[in-house]
Amino acid sequence: MSPIKKKICLLGDVGVGKTSLIRRYVENIFDDSYLTTIGVKVSQKTISPKEGKDVLLMIWDVEGFNKPGTVSPNYFIGAAGAMVVCDLSRGESIENLKDVIRDFRRINTQAGLVLAGNKADLVGSTHPGRLLFRETARSLELPFFETSALNGQNVAACFETLSRKLIEPS
Amino acid sequence: MTDLLCNSLLAQIQSAYALVTPALMIEKHSPLFNNFCLEAEDPRTTPVCDLVPEFVGLENTFREVLKKGKTFDLPLINKAGNSYHCLVSPYDNPETPILVTFYNRTEFANLKQEILQRENEIRILKARLTAQSRNAASNLIGKSPALQKIKLMVERLSGIKATAILLQGETGTGKSTVARVLHYASAAEKDPFIEINCAALPETLLESELFGAVKGAYTNALQDRTGLIEAADGGSLFLDEISELPLALQAKLLSFLETRRFRPLGSNREKSVDIRLIAATNKDLEKEVEKGAFREDLFFRLNIVPLHLPALREMDEDVILLAEHFIRHFNLQFNKRIKGLSPAAKKKLLKHSWPGNVRELSNCMEQAMIFKDHGWLEAEDIALRRTEPEANISLPATGLNLETLERNLLLEALERAGGNKTQAARLLGLTRDTLRYRLEKHGIA
User: Fold this and answer.
1) How far apart are the first and last CA of chain B?
2) What is the ipTM of this complex?
3) The domain that contains A141 carries what CATH number?
């Protein structure tokens, strides 16, 4: 039996590490050179969030939000979930999480969401970015993970949490 | 013939099409369209929204195209090194009313990439620098005039690297924090910040630690060793408790500060580095100079920009702002949900003299939060270190009214003891009878 297919989007400011998170999760590789994403790229990964339930994830690496309204909202249509990513070392990208979520929610009101505070390897345990990220996540009442595409910290956990939301919507 | 021509043209421009039935099945497609389909699926038997990865979840969108006759597009889909603009449009044929096309837009995408790459790199760098300097400044918490003065000085000094900076202040006033702020406010991400406590190492070790040593310079020098001054090249060297630096090393440090050159232990070759030197002490260096314990010339060299950090008791209500900062910090560290300080707790913190300054406040909040999980921190949750006020009280230059002072102390002791005279007497070091006598003397009921 072919697995059910679900579309998820990775969204967030430019340079927060969306492509790196996908490459770490799908191919288990990391490359620290930065190449800005233009448009979208869809990667695939089969997972089993529940016994006997295979899901083929269509992971949309959506170009970064650098100005409001520059990302085509058509990319969000049909998504069952989204991982909204920020860079813990750049407060601005954390502050923009709410705008990114608002743009996504305009198109997609029901999709599951999870937040990823990426580049955790760059910031210390008491860095204000961590504090701001946790406060933002709590205020949005969304599950959140401090991730590192560099060392893999919480990357799989973040994707798996989102995947579980897809098959067990609250 | 038409199909052949069409397919040949599309192949030349690396583009593809497919015609879709009302049941969302593919009826016909150009050969290149296979590149857009999932390998595991059969185009003849699989609905288009299960066949093309980019169409997963788009069943309703396809039906909308059918129903409303409006084109839907997905700009710049990247696939196998090329970029495509995908269009799902109505097609004037009842059997295949939807036309899917993938136009090759690789050249356009490459051009856009070239423009945005540079723009985004600059944007990211700027944002990171802003965050870095904003975070550095955010470590100086408070609104009191005393702290505002420090913030202003730090701002001015952050751009000047050549001048040594001397931080003076009581123990626990945050000299190390200010040193870091000075460094991070202007340093690049990879510039080093090296810190050493001059009181922590014996003289013999301190010299090699600071200036480095070459192999054979002393008995156990089995290989060349880079000193902290060299390690701080391009960044900042923070010498805490500079007053404890032995006199011989003070001379060597002065020479380095004047020439920016130094010679590692046992070496004939001079090295030169570019560092910012920040020194700190809780002692009065002028008095140390008078005693002969600190070189006058080094003092003058360091004292070009003296920065005196205020004691916590001089920072008015900053005590509360700092306490709230520590609550947020320890909430995260201990995974607690303390809401903040109750009014009584605030009053208690404001009344204390904080001889241990910010460090004492931090310890005090940490201790309070270990024993409480949620709600507000109350006055009784906060255990303050007993202070010995008699040791701190000195006659002000303008004199004082002893009677008023005694009355105020009696009232404060009673308030702190909640009206309990035995406890109030203990706070003042009096017997209960003596306290009663003094209360009567001042007409305090």
Assistant:
1) 115
2) 0.91
3) 3.40.50.300
Q: Which residues of chain A lie closer than 8 angstroms to B109, CB-CB?
A: 38-39
Tell which residue, A65, A5, A64, A7, has the closest CA to residue A35.
A64
The number of distinct structural domains making up chain A is 1
Q: Which of A60, A90, A94, A144 to mutate to test the interface with B (most CBs of B within 10 A)?
A: A90
**Does B42 lie at the interface with A, CB-CB under 8 angstroms?**
no
State the CB neighbour count (10 A cutoff) for residue B127. 19
Provide the domain limits for residue A20. 4-167
State the amino acid at position B3 in one-letter form.
D
* DSSP result, B317-338: THHHHHHHHHHHHHHHHHT-EE
Strand-pairing partners, residue B101, are B17, B87
**In whole angstroms, what is the distance from residue A169 CA to residue A148 CA?**
26
Q: What is the pLDDT of residues B121-132, one digit of tens each?
A: 888 877 776 666
Chain B CB contacts of A78 under 8 Å are: 56-61
pTM: 0.57
Contact B131 A129 (CB under 8 A): yes
> Which residues of chain A neighbour B108 with C-beta distances below 8 Å?
none
**Alpha-carbon gap: A106 to the closest alpha carbon of chain B (Å):** 16
Which of A40, A66, A89 minimises the CB distance to B78?
A40
- pLDDT tens string A80-133: 999 999 999 888 899 999 999 999 999 999 899 999 999 998 877 667 788 889
